[in-house]
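Supplementary notes for students who missed Thursday's class. We covered one full example, reproduced here. Read the sequence, then the structure, then the short commentary at the end.
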Amino acid sequence: MQPVTLIILLSLLQYWIFSLLVARYRTKVLAPAITGPPEFERALRIQVNTHERLIVFIPSVWLFGALVSVPWATGLGVAFLLARTLYAIGYLRSPGKRTLGSWLSFTVELALLAGALIGLGLNWNMLS
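Structure (token representation):
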């Protein structure tokens, strides 16, 4: 499970980097405001949306690795990290360019969640 743990840590590091991006643009926005220049608002949306995605991704990738396959969980985890990077780059350039990264992230999450549920069903007797 070490590769899956590494993927989870990398996803948290990526989120932390996205948080730093918000802080970079926040210098132009006085707290507690969450509106300001477009660059700030896009960076904030990247961070908030990634936070929302991690709530599903982290337990799903962990359970998929434990119940189905560590190599597949790792590969899907890498795909998630790349999709979130694509999402962030696209969103920073223009909000309309975030779509591909968003759909790829969602697809990976769905695969991990479905796989974990199937893996649980297939391993039900061993887990009781």
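Commentary. The chain has one domain: 2-120. The chain has a mean pLDDT of 94. If anything here is unclear, bring it to office hours.
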